[in-house]
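Human: We require from you a standard protein entry with sequence in single-letter code and fold as tokens, and nothing else.

Assistant:
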Amino acid sequence: MSCANATPAPGGDVRTRVDLAIRGVRLAAPVRRTGGAGPSDDGHVVLDGLATALPLRADSPYLVRDGRILREELGAVTDLGVDVEPVRRPAFYDLSTADGVPYEKIARLHGSEVLATTVVQTCSRYDPADRCRFCAIESSLESGATIAVKTPAMLAEVAEAAVRLDGVKHVVLTTGTSTAPDRGARHLARCVRAIREAVPGLPVQVQCEPPADLATLTELKEAGADSIGIHVESLDDAVRRRWMPGKSTVTLAEYRAAWREAVRVFGRNQVSTYLLVGLGEDPDELVAGAAELVEMGVYPFVVPFRPLAGTLAVDEDGALAPEAAVLEDVSRRVAEALRAGGMRGADQMAGCAACGACSVLQNLSA
């Protein structure tokens, strides 16, 4: 077995990051996430100075040894010249509430400095006929890794400990969709208010579907939320019907109205949405849609579709991650649109774009 040092070509670091996002890494990660509503089955590391979430895959050609990313193929091991450090297990994971609920079941560390939780771990759209095919929101509940409903008091308690013990810098609160017209936003508002009372000044992002009454967005802001994610995943109606049969009943016109109102309430670049690469949307149309969002003041957080165990996409469809070349091309063009629009994820007060760990955009200075 040989080991050679590699000097990345221009853009090589981005290509490595893209390939890692698709093919994952072999790593014993102290901070990891399985199941749940968003990108998961990953380990959290600091990769060349950036908080990064990498899929954990036993079949990956990439591995970590002595603080470096190595690629092992055909019996040869190549040092890619990329420093990596697993995120340490946070101290707040060792605590429990007075009635015995482990803090780790209430909220998790994401990246290196984000506290994240799904405040209601059930979704009204989780019937197989309506479920988003890439989502496993209830799988972590079924496995006992979390609890169904996180109360405002619980979240305030965990947030205070996470800031005090582990230096958490911001909070992400998402939720399964409820049958109420607010689609779960009002419980989010109660949780935000409790966190801000316990830890004044701690930035919070909320994530929800467009509420039926857009005045609810002002309620979230007045509760203390600093930014908001209203996640559409795709701007192609045929893709939405195929992958998100229940969620696609909320029209793109309703999403655009919610984004415009959210920008008015929260400000430009404090509103974001996920766009998934690999669902079958035409890459040129995806990029054009992302540019439209930037013009509106909405940050398009571009991430690869990630096949997750326990989702319909894997169990029924056998779906695969996108090709690395497609992800790199889309990410580069969306990053260019963001630069032209003067928008950076790092300028968001809180949330997924502010963290950046699940996307390649941060590696492109977007």
Summary: Residues 1-12 have pLDDT under 50 and may be disordered. The two ends are 39 Å apart (CA to CA). Residues 152 and 191 are 4 Å apart (CA to CA). The longest helix spans residues 324-340.
